[in-house]
Specification:
The chain contains 7 helices and 15 strands. The chain is of the alpha/beta class and 289 residues long. The chain folds into 2 domains: 203 residues, Zn peptidases (Aminopeptidase, 3-Layer(aba) Sandwich), CATH 3.40.630; 64 residues, OB fold (Dihydrolipoamide Acetyltransferase, E2P). Helix 5 links the parallel strand 6 and strand 7. 42% of the residues are buried.
Length: 289
């Protein structure tokens, strides 16, 4: 077995010194306050190092996306920006280089590594309770892979985000990719869940063959049709929504002193989170595909 740190936070593992394809990537902690992915890939890396897990074919890439923000326990560094909103690289044309923060440099550092993969899994966690769900970029067989790794829902399109997030960038390069929200940040079992999802992904893609079955289940497919931004600091939800809670037409989603928002059709609440700045996305609405 061959293990090499390719660059800070990026480890590759293969049974061959030629580092053959396919290149299968698993990433975690794109946001520093979501450490479950980094913990999952750290455990997997240790299993390779100790010899309790072995690569079957190709080359596995384990990517700790945002180690500095993880060390700080923040979504992104104080001088930087959300790493998962920089993958359109627009900042390279609109922001002076001396004004770049850590995440601006990091996204460029990761661009060639991730853009050169053959398939990628991006692990996240949510601020509120949610069943595990994936967001697919629709390339190749990624939707079929997603249905075998232990998630409950699969989002097949996400209005308003596709051009800025890692799976959107990978779609442009033709790389099948899946982001998975493994559960809530404060779930005491969140790192275990992330690890099991990552191992199932490695099994389904053929990167490992450890004798365990993949974690297939019934998966409901949906697509996000609307995002709601936080209109004011006083905005509050009509109820304490949880992930994929069903909302009936007319349900009071939230309000402040001047704005009242109600849903117009049966839908699901996705990633409800009041702990965001005014103007940022506070909740998404999804419908069955």
């Amino acid at each position: 077995m061959y293990i090499e740190e390719l660059k800070p936070g990026v480890t590759r593992i293969s049974a061959s010194p030629d580092w053959p394809r396919p290149y299968v990537g698993v990433g975690g902690a794109m946001h520093g306050n979501e450490p479950c992915g980094a913990e999952a890939i750290s455990r997997i890396a240790l299993a390779f190092e100790e010899g309790t897990l072995a690569p079957a074919k190709g080359t596995i890439f384990l990517v700790h996306a945002n180690p500095l923000a993880t060390a700080q326990g923040r979504r992104h560094t104080p001088e930087g920006e959300d790493l998962n909103r920089l993958w359109d690289f627009e900042f390279t044309e609109t922001l002076r280089e001396d004004a770049w923060g850590y995440e601006h440099h990091r996204v460029l550092e990761l661009k060639d590594v991730l853009g050169g993969l053959d398939v990628f899994l991006d692990l996240h966690s949510a601020g509120t309770s949610t069943p595990a769900f994936g967001v697919s970029n629709g390339e190749a067989q990624i939707d079929e892979i997603a249905k075998q790794i232990g998630i409950a829902y699969l989002v097949q399109s996400w209005y308003g985000l596709a051009d800025k997030v890692i799976i959107g960038f990978l779609k442009l390069t033709g790389v099948p990719a899946l982001s998975v929200e493994c559960g809530a940040h404060d779930d005491p079992e969140i790192s275990d869940k992330a690890q099991q999802i990552a191992l199932s992904f490695l099994r389904v893609t053929g990167a490992i063959d450890d004798g365990h079955a993949s974690n297939g289940s019934d998966v409901r497919t949906v697509h996000v049709v609307e995002k709601i931004t936080k209109p004011s600091k006083e905005f509050y939800f009509g109820e304490q929504w949880t992930g994929f809670q069903t909302l009936a037409p007319g349900t009071l989603l939230g309000r402040d002193r001047v704005t009242e928002i109600r849903v117009s059709q049966r839908c699901y609440a996705v990633l409800p989170n009041l702990d965001v700045d005014v103007g940022d996305d506070v909740i998404y609405l999804a419908v069955d595909t």
